[in-house]
Amino acid sequence: LLERYGLPDPAADTAVGVFTNPELQALYDQLMEEGSQSLADALRVGALVEEVDIIDLETYIAQTDNEDVLLVYQNLLKGSYNHLRAFTSTLEKQTGEIYQLQLLESAG
């Protein structure tokens, strides 16, 4: 989309894990610390991040009518649901723990 619409890449000159937004930086640092404690913690953090992404993407989809942007958001949403399933199933297989959704409502 950046190329198609001639937009600059706002993250082009930043290192991995470095954010110009102080709130994002603090959240990233917190989640990295939490996720570094154990495999189970890392999987829980990964699942939580995907829940946030899903909520954000669903909001953006509802606010967008540009077909190019919708296609990208919808594909990202599918990816986030797949990642959420992967994190939660790996958590259960590796630790026996069943992940409880933190932000999304459970279907059924």
Topology diagram in text:
Blueprint: H1 22-35, H2 39-62, H3 67-95
Helix pairs in contact: 1-2, 2-3
Q: Any overview of this molecule?
A:
This protein has helices spanning about 20-35, 40-60, 65-95. The longest helix is centred in the last third of the chain and has 29 residues, at about 65-95. It has about 110 residues and is an all-alpha fold. It contains three helices and no strands. The protein has a domain at about 40-95. The model has no long low-confidence stretch (mean pLDDT about 95).
What does this entry show, briefly?
With 108 residues, the protein is an all-alpha fold. It contains three helices and no strands.
Rg calc: 16 Å
User: What is the N-to-C order of secondary-structure elements (H for helix, E for strand)?
Assistant: HHH
Q: Please estimate the helix content.
A: 55-70%
Number of helical segments with 4 or more residues: 3
Summarize model confidence as the mean pLDDT: 95
Quickly give the structural class.
mainly alpha
Task: Give me the count of strands.
Answer: 0
Shape call: globular
How much beta, percentage-wise? Answer: under 5%
Uncertain ranges: none
Q: How far do the termini sit from each other? A: 36 Å
Give structural attributes.
globular; single chain; 108 residues; mainly alpha; 3 helices
